[in-house]
Design goal:
- By secondary structure, this protein is of the alpha+beta class.
- The chain has 11 helices and 12 strands.
- The chain has 2 domains: 101 residues, no CATH class; 340 residues, no CATH class.
- The protein is 62% helix and 10% strand.
- A hairpin with a 6-residue loop joins strand 5 and strand 6.
- The two termini are 19 Å apart.
């Protein structure tokens, strides 16, 4: 009798655990990163009797996490590229907007205005009004160039702040992974399930892959996870190292050693802010345009004469995109603006030469207009390429996430079917307990 009762009780316990596991799955169906669990049951050790071996019932051997390691590793790999191009697209779009000539008048429009004003002075070399307009057009061109440079500096600052904030975010995740490692190792050593903690750790490692492009490794028993970036270990066991953003690149916080991060969101941020990076490159090009324009125009202007018959005065001040401006004396006294090549009042030799300068290739054989268009075309092309890559990778990531969810995600229909099955097992085991009770009562009754 006791053997039958033990078997019945084992069935009750096993089905109860299976029902609890199913309930846990249903409750966490909408939790991001949750892996459905399954109670693994096994035959309990048989008992040796004089009649041979008798069954010992059932026992729950483990609560298994349903996962697909290969697909998840593939997903993490794709996330490193997706994170990179997602962040790069956003940052390039900010730079592209600075040189956008379609929605608002920009540098190209101001350059047209400058040469149109020069043409008016050339047609009317004695006109004060045309000289005033010319000075204003020159100042507008200078202002648009310096404003573009200032916006690039702002974009650079914002990106650096973003890199600093993401470094803090990464450090918090590294700490949590290390902390979970310590807890999970303790649970596994004591043969206890750590499924929920392992789910959380997997989600953190996925986020870290997307942020940094780093790689993770999880031991076969799932007790420990490590994480590294380009061969530098940041999580080992329950210990974690931090990263920091040093203004132009990432470093290890404890040693100050440079850390190469060229993938993930941080890789894109680094590509934008580093020396010789995206913003630095476009600032250099803009400065090349401004310094060339200032130098060549001042050479021409100093050779000419104003209405006061005096020569040798520069039109622009400053040396590049940061400080380009029109001489305040020119703006205050337009008579000083040079148009004459020989000092005579009606001569327009200088302004005619200025107009011809527009067709001269001063920058590596390119005219100022062509060089500026190459800047605009360059950022437009980079943004288009990054956007295309990001769109393509988003599709791959979405497909892989669906495949991961198909394996580890909770199907409510399947869980309801399991619940009915386990409930029937529980009811049957209960009936068996009742049968034992009835048999025992019958035996006791016979003995009275």
């Amino acid at each position: 009798m006791s053997a039958i009762l033990d078997i019945a009780l084992s069935g009750l316990r096993a089905s109860q655990i299976a029902i609890d596991t199913t309930a846990h799955n249903v409750a966490n169906a909408s939790v991001e990163g949750y892996s459905r669990q399954r109670a693994i049951v096994a035959t309990q050790n048989s008992q040796v009797t004089s009649k041979g071996f008798l069954g010992g019932g059932v026992v729950v051997a483990d609560a298994e996490r349903i996962t697909n390691r290969w697909t998840e590793r593939h997903l993490n790999t794709e996330l490193t590229q997706s994170g990179y191009y997602s962040e790069l697209t956003e940052r390039l779009s900010q730079v592209e907007a600075i040189f956008n000539e379609t929605s608002t008048p920009g540098i190209a429009d101001a350059m047209n205005g400058f040469f149109e004003a020069a043409s008016s002075v050339s047609d009317n070399p004695e006109s004060i009004g045309d000289r005033v307009a010319f000075g204003q057009a020159a100042q507008q061109l200078a202002s648009r160039i310096t404003n573009a440079d200032a916006q690039l500096v702002t974009a650079l600052t914002d990106t650096r702040v973003g890199a600093e904030q993401e470094a803090v975010n990464v450090n918090q995740k590294l700490d949590e992974v290390a902390q979970l490692n310590g807890l999970i190792m303790g649970m596994v050593q004591n043969n206890r399930s750590a499924s929920d903690m392992q789910d959380r750790r997997d989600l953190l490692l996925r986020d870290l892959s997307e942020l940094t492009g780093g790689s993770s490794y999880i031991t076969e028993d799932g007790s420990e996870a490590s994480f590294s970036i380009n061969g530098v270990a940041l999580v080992l066991g329950s210990g974690a190292r931090h990263i920091d953003f040093g203004g132009t690149g990432f470093v290890l916080e404890d040693t100050g050693q440079p850390l190469t991060i060229d993938k993930g969101k941080l890789g894109a941020l680094n590509e934008v802010v580093k020396t010789g990076g995206v913003i630095d490159d476009y600032r250099t090009q803009l400065n090349t345009l401004a310094s060339s324009f200032i130098t060549q125009m001042n050479v021409m202007h100093t050779a000419g004469y104003g209405l006061d018959g005096i020569a040798g005065r520069a039109l622009f001040t400053g040396t590049g995109a940061t400080d380009m401006a029109v001489s305040t004396t020119m703006l205050d006294n337009p008579r000083q603006i040079a148009a004459s090549a020989d000092g005579t009042t009606g001569n327009n030799g200088i302004t005619k030469s200025m107009l011809n300068m527009r067709r001269t290739g001063y920058i590596a054989g390119q005219t100022w207009d062509d060089y500026y268009q190459s800047i605009v075309g360059g950022i437009g092309g980079q943004t288009l390429t990054a956007t295309s890559q990001q769109t393509s990778l988003s599709s791959v990531v979405s497909e892989l996430k669906n495949r991961v969810d198909e394996v580890r995600g909770v199907s409510l229909d399947e869980e309801m079917a399991n619940l009915i099955q386990f409930q029937q097992v529980y009811n049957a085991s209960s009936r068996l307990v009742q049968t034992v009770k009835d048999m025992t009562d019958a035996v006791l009754t016979l003995g009275r």
